[in-house]
Every structure is written in structure tokens, then in C-alpha cells.
Specification:
The chain has 262 residues and is of the alpha/beta class. It is built from 6 helices and 7 strands, in the order E-E-H-H-H-E-H-E-E-H-E-E-H. The chain has a 7-stranded mixed beta sheet with strand order 1-3-2-4-7-5-6. Helix 5 links the parallel strand 5 and strand 6. Helix 3 crosses helix 6 and helix 5 packs antiparallel against helix 6.
Length: 262
């Protein structure tokens, strides 16, 4: 059985806005035929989703868009990252392959089996990963054509305590972690995020940004920043409801959008 809902949405912003709020990890939905390849029982799968999903980040981006003076575009993944993770490299460049979490995960956050290790990733890459990458590339190209530049703000969250899969979980875990790229993250973008969010750290416990491969390391008109929000600042962990911190963070994200839209 295939999954009926669209796998991702590009939600319209202002014609002149260069900003794309990218929300890749907020969903819990898994198509039935993909679920059949996952070895966890239903309760274990729900627990894994509690830990791995960046809960409420789609709502955060939606609220921030509504508060922004110039409405940003939003690119939102509607499927769980246990289907495919659109932000991974699809090949041996991906360091998360070491813990079974490349573009198609074979291990869970506690390093137990999610799928058999010999699972062929190609059908999932063809069906989900590559169409997502093409659509995101097209969205960036449209912002370049319309605004002369594109600013990708990746909206993520992370747990207050490190999970076993984390490769760099022994470093600082600030309320907001900013992931940067030496080519695509200019100092003024980091400064705008610091001004908007206040108490931030850089590249710990997660680093880097998402830029479609077509532009990655090639086009300086595309800038990018990953915003990783520690979950205990806005929700009940793991996988629980959002709290009052969500509104404060939405205001901060809107301030960042407005700063980089000018």
C-alpha cells in the first residue's frame, strides 16, 4: 500500500523573500509498505519516533512565518526521517553511515536494528530521497531568480541529553545550537541569529547546514544556517506536547527571518 499524503510541501511565501524555512524532520508518518521493512513492533517504533522526530518544528516554522514582516517560504517534509533522511549524503561521504544512519537508516537512536543491514536503499532513494532533493533544488533556484539570493534556515530540535547514536554528543548542548558551513554561512547570518535567539552555541552537538548538492560549495548566493533548538526549552521530552516556549522561539525565528530578508 502506498502512502496517500504528499511526501513534502513547498508553502508559498512573499514573492520577494529570499528565505526558505526548511523543516525536514518534524513528521511521524511512514507509508505502510515502508513500515513493512522496519523490524520494530508498533510500540518500539512509536518510542523511536519520540526520540528521533524534531517534534513541533513544523508548527514553529508556521508560527514564525505568520509573525514575519516578509513571509518566508517553507519546505516541509511530511514523512518521517525513518523513511529517508533528506539531509544525509546518499553515499559514502555520509559520516552517519558509521551508526547505520545514512540516507536510509538501518539502526535506531539506541543502535538497535531498525532494518536488516543488507536492506537495499535504492528503492527508497529513488522514490523519496531524489524527488525531495530535486524539489528543494528547484525551490532554491526559484528564490535565486526572484530575489537574487536564497537563505536556507534549517529548523531542527535535539534532546537535552545525548542519545547513543550521536557521534559528537559529548560537547556543549546550548538552548540553541547554530550549525554552520564555511562556504555558505556568512558571519552576518550568524550575527543575526545570535541577536534573534540570544543564548546560542556554534556547531555543538550538531554542525553543518543543508544546501542542495547542485549549489553546495559552488554558489555563494545561497547561504544557509541550521537552527537546532534544545527540546526541553519548548516541549515535554520525549515526544510530548509543546509548551509556552514555542511561542517565544517562533518570535525569535521570525526576527531572524526579518533580519535576513532586509
Amino acid at each position: 500500500m502506498s502512502f496517500a499524503a504528499p511526501p513534502f510541501d513547498l508553502l508559498t511565501g512573499a514573492a520577494r523573500s529570499p528565505v526558505i524555512l526548511h523543516v525536514p524532520h518534524s513528521a511521524r508518518r511512514i507509508p505502510a509498505d515502508v513500515r513493512a521493512g522496519i523490524v520494530l513492533d508498533d510500540s518500539a517504533l512509536e518510542r523511536e519516533l519520540d526520540h528521533i522526530v524534531d517534534a513541533h518544528t513544523a508548527e514553529l516554522a508556521e508560527r514564525a512565518a505568520g509573525l514575519s514582516g516578509v513571509t518566508p517560504w517553507r519546505f516541509v517534509n511530511r514523512l518521517a526521517r525513518l523513511v529517508v533522511d533528506p539531509e544525509r549524503f546518499p553515499d559514502e561521504r555520509e559520516e552517519m553511515l558509521a551508526v547505520g544512519m545514512g540516507a536510509v537508516y538501518t539502526r535506531t537512536t539506541d543502535r538497535n536494528v531498525l532494518r536488516p543491514a543488507d536492506t537495499d536503499p535504492e528503492p527508497l532513494l529513488a522514490r523519496y530521497f531524489r524527488p525531495y532533493a530535486r524539489a528543494m533544488s528547484e525551490a532554491v533556484a526559484e528564490r535565486l531568480a526572484a530575489a537574487g539570493r536564497a537563505v536556507i534556515v534549517d529548523v531542527h530540535s535535539y534532546p537535552s541529553a545525548a542519545l547513543p547514536y550521536e557521534l559528537h554528543g559529548d560537547g556543549p548542548r546550548p538552548p540553541v545550537c547554530l550549525g554552520t558551513d564555511p562556504f555558505h554561512t556568512p558571519p552576518e547570518l550568524v550575527a543575526a541569529a545570535r541577536a534573534a535567539f540570544g543564548d546560542v552555541g556554534l556547531d555543538s552537538p550538531f554542525s553543518g547546514t543543508y544546501v542542495p548538492l547542485e549549489f553546495h560549495g559552488r554558489d555563494p548566493r545561497v547561504s544557509a544556517l541550521m537552527v537546532e533548538i534544545r527540546r526541553d526549552t519548548y516541549m515535554t521530552e520525549p515526544g510530548g506536547p509543546a509548551g509556552p516556549g514555542l511561542e517565544r522561539l517562533a518570535s525569535a525565528l521570525a526576527a531572524l527571518v526579518d533580519a535576513v530578508s532586509r
